[in-house]
Amino acid sequence: MFIPKSFAEHNQDEIFALIDEYPLASISYIADGKPCVCHVPVLHCYENGKHKLITHVARANQVWQHTKTPWLIVFMGASHYISANWYPSKQQSHKEVPTYNYQTVHITAQARVLDELEAAKTILAQTTDFFEQKISKQLPSHTAWQLSDAPEPFIDKMCAALVAIELEIIEIQAQFKLSQNKPAADQAGVVAGLTQIATPEAVKMAQLVAKFAKS
């Protein structure tokens, strides 16, 4: 991935926080000499002093049969269009153009298929627990769903149609393009413009631009 120096992100806490917030990933792999992509939630785990990723896919999904070469796993975070009219410097020189701010994380990883029923049940439980806990934090009255809520034979049948996958991380690249290359006044203008729009996407981007602004 081409990453201008201003936008390179190396802080692993920030990178894995993005994955936790935006877990739907695009997995790129090679099948029969052709590039392919599938879209599945991928979770970050930290076990025994090591970061890894986990996911599961339908057995009918061919991706799990193509693990000889590493996969490229892409996570997209917040994004928003940035108007040049938000830059005070544009009013002075008119030498400004719009842009698009975004966050993305690219992880190259080696997939390992865990083709056992118990492995599928374990990763399915981890995945549902992760998302159910997120709902419970946002909605305290929510009752979290668990695998044990359904009859075990039913869960076993469902899990037999799944394939669990662990992903050993080989390389991480992250780009947070959040107006870091702009002077403080223009960054403030971006925050003000986004804040006026007031959509959840705009508010999120305004918060990020302010957080990563030059001190």
Tell me about this structure.
34% of the residues lie in helices and 34% in strands. By secondary structure, the protein is α+β, with helices and mostly antiparallel strands. It has a single domain (8-124, 162-212), classed as Pnp Oxidase, Chain A (Roll), CATH 2.30.110.10. Strands 2-1-5-6-7-4-3 form a seven-stranded antiparallel sheet. Helix 5 packs antiparallel against helix 6. The radius of gyration is 21 Å and the shape is elongated.
Q: What percentage of residues falls in helices of 4 or more residues?
A: 25-40%
What is the radius of gyration computed over CA atoms, rounded to a whole number of angstroms? 21 Å
CATH superfamily: Electron Transport, Fmn-binding Protein, Chain A
Count the E strands.
7
What is the total domain count?
1
CATH topology: Pnp Oxidase, Chain A
Order of helices and strands: HEEEEEHEHHEHH
Mean pLDDT: 95
Q: State the CATH architecture.
A: Roll
Largest sheet: 7 strands, antiparallel
Indicate the proportion of strand residues. Answer: 25-35%
Alpha plus pi helix count: 6
What is the CA-CA span between the terminal residues? 27 Å
Under CATH at level 1, the class stands as Mainly Beta
CA-based shape: elongated
| Overall SS class | alpha+beta
